[in-house]
Each structure stands twice: as structure tokens, then as C-alpha cells.
């Protein structure tokens, strides 16, 4: 059974650009969550999608957005990139609820120059 | 609002020694508690979780944690450290509002031969 797949693995962008990251959850999983990991702020929750609907949202500016498709694949978009957006972006999937095991992908390392 | 505090950003133990990683949380509702491990250049892997029931939780790789409500703690232990345990460990809390985890700052465990 394939794990959570995130693409691309590495990404380099410049300030002001926008970026789209992709996440394919484990087959059958309907919940996809996104987290940002930085040395300074640690792991922070961005948002969660369940059956194509955003179920929870963290405390990030509107430049950060996401969506989920009918096949449960998810994308997150960051517009008008800032230097501080440089981070490892992790995607996690589960079948449905918070008491279930989250399966994490290896992440997309975004560097903003 | 929930929060998680992990005491000690770095912990060093000798191989074969006891591992104790500390986690204290705050939550306005009965919490769900988790420990995750992250190896270099990888995503997070669930070690164990507490939802309801028995307060002593056993996880993978010989780790266990005890939920102590009176102390708002969920410390992670392992009787005998192995070199392969060297990694970063994260404690997290959820209020079951979907897959929205609040993580602690992480503890990097180093194991000396």
C-alpha cells in the first residue's frame, strides 16, 4: 500500500512568486491535513480537508490556501511568497477522525530567495 | 486554546540507558495526546496515542507513555535506549476537532555509544 506522496520534494522560488504543492493521500483516506515546519516556529497546523471541504483552519494569512479533489488528492497554494515562508511543508492523511493515526509524507522543502 | 510544552530541546543518553522525554499540555477539553518521531529528511511517524481508557499507553519500538491528568503530563519513556532511537520526538494534543494537532517544540534525542 503506497504511503502519502508529496511533490515536488524540493522547490526554490523567489519573493513575490506563488507556489503550488501537491499531496496524494493513502488510498481510501478522506482526510488530508497540511503542516508547516520551521526551525523557529516548529510544527504548525495550516488546514485540514475532508471530503473536499475545509474542516479546520490554522492561524495563517489568506496567502495560504488549499483544496481537495474528489479523489482526495490535495493541493496547497501560497501566493506572494515571503522569505519567512521557507519551510518544510508536511501533508498527512487519515481515514477520517482525530483519534486515528495520521500518516505523514516526507514533505516538500520550500526555499524562498 | 491548547498548548504543548516539551522540556528540553536536546536530550542525550547512553546506549542502554533509560529514555525520558517530558511533555506537558494544556487543554480545555479532554485531550487526545500523541507522540511522533521524525528521522532526518523524513515525515513524522506515530509512536503512540492516548484517547480514552488505560492511562499507560504502549507504542512501537518499546516506547510507552503515561497520561497523568492531575499533572497535565504525557511523558514518553523507553527502558533501554538504542542507537536507532536517535531522532526528534514531538508531543502533540488534539481536541478531536478533526485532524488539527498542536505540537510541542520537539526534543532531539541523541544516543551515545
Q: Work out the number of β strands of chain A.
A: 11
Main sheet of chain A, how many strands, which sense, barrel? 7 strands, mixed
Rg over CA atoms of chain A: 13 Å
Could you give the distance between the termini of chain B?
41 Å
In DSSP terms, counting alpha (H) and pi (I) runs of 4 or more, how many helices of chain A?
0
Mean pLDDT score of chain A: 93
Architecture overview:
The complex is a heterodimer of chains A (about 110) and B (about 110). Chain A is about 0% helix and about 55% strand. Chain A contains no helices and eleven strands. In chain A, strand 9 and strand 10 (about 105) form a beta hairpin. The model of chain A has no long low-confidence stretch (mean pLDDT about 95). Chain B has about 110 residues and is mainly beta. In chain B, strands 2, 5, 6, 10, 11 and 12 form a six-stranded mixed β-sheet that branches. A four-stranded antiparallel β-sheet of chain B has the order 3-9-8-7, with no helix packed on it. Chain B is built from no helices and twelve strands. The chains are: A mainly beta (about 110), B mainly beta (about 110). The interface between A and B is medium-sized, with 25 and 25 residues.
List the helices and strands and how they pair.
The complex is a heterodimer of chains A (113) and B (113).
Chain A: E1 5-7, E2 10-13, E3 19-24, E4 31-38, E5 42-50, E6 53-57, E7 64-68, E8 74-78, E9 87-94, E10 103-104, E11 108-112
Parallel strand pairs in A: 2-11
Antiparallel strand pairs in A: 1-3, 3-8, 4-5, 4-9, 5-6, 7-8, 9-10, 9-11
Chain B: E1 3-5, E2 10-14, E3 19-21, E4 24-26, E5 32-38, E6 44-50, E7 56-58, E8 64-68, E9 73-78, E10 87-94, E11 102-103, E12 107-112
Parallel strand pairs in B: 2-12
Antiparallel strand pairs in B: 1-4, 3-9, 5-6, 5-10, 7-8, 8-9, 10-11, 10-12
Amino acid at each position: 500500500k503506497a504511503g502519502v506522496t508529496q511533490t515536488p520534494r524540493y522547490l526554490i522560488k523567489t519573493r513575490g512568486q506563488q507556489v503550488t504543492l501537491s499531496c496524494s493521500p493513502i488510498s481510501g483516506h478522506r482526510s488530508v491535513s497540511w503542516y508547516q515546519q520551521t526551525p523557529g516556529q516548529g510544527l504548525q497546523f495550516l488546514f485540514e480537508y475532508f471530503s473536499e471541504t475545509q474542516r479546520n483552519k490554522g492561524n495563517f494569512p489568506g496567502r495560504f490556501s488549499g483544496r481537495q479533489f474528489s479523489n482526495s488528492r490535495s493541493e496547497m497554494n501560497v501566493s506572494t511568497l515571503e522569505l519567512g515562508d521557507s519551510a518544510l511543508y508536511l501533508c498527512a492523511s487519515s481515514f477520517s477522525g482525530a483519534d486515528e493515526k495520521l500518516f505523514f509524507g516526507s514533505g516538500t522543502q520550500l526555499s524562498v530567495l | 486554546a491548547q498548548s504543548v510544552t516539551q522540556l528540553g530541546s536536546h536530550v542525550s543518553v547512553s546506549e542502554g540507558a533509560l529514555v525520558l522525554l517530558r511533555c506537558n499540555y494544556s487543554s480545555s477539553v479532554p485531550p487526545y495526546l500523541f507522540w511522533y518521531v521524525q528521522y532526518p529528511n523524513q515525515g513524522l511517524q506515530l509512536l503512540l496515542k492516548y484517547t480514552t481508557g488505560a492511562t499507560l499507553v504502549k507504542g512501537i519500538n518499546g516506547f510507552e507513555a503515561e497520561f497523568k491528568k492531575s499533572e497535565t503530563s504525557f511523558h514518553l519513556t523507553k527502558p533501554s535506549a538504542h542507537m536507532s532511537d536517535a531522532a526528534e520526538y514531538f508531543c502533540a494534543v488534539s481536541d478531536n476537532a478533526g485532524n488539527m494537532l498542536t505540537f510541542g517544540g520537539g526534543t532531539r534525542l541523541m544516543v551515545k555509544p
